[in-house]
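Milestone M4 deliverable, item 7.
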Amino acid sequence: MVRAVTIEEFAEDSQAFQGTRGASTNNRSLGFVPAFLDTDTGVVYISRNPNGTLAPCHCLDGLPDTLIAGRDSKGRVQAVKGSVIAGFERNGCFFTREQAAHFTATDET
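Output delivered:
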């Protein structure tokens, strides 16, 4: 059985980067866009709201069904495939939260 990543785990990850440029609110002005990487396929998915518009933060409900591992009774995403990680897209490149925080701390972007 393949491990799933839950919405709670994404929230904990996000909380760990609050106050750093590994968080959407702190790196948006530098051109970073919240995104997800499926490490199994290498495909990057820009974070989107359920209606398809760009999301200002990491939103699981906008991911394609192929990445979804569980939903609640109202259809909201509660878990995704274990190969999915949250990060950012900038100028065609994917950055993990750690990479974004490090890059912005060492570069004049």
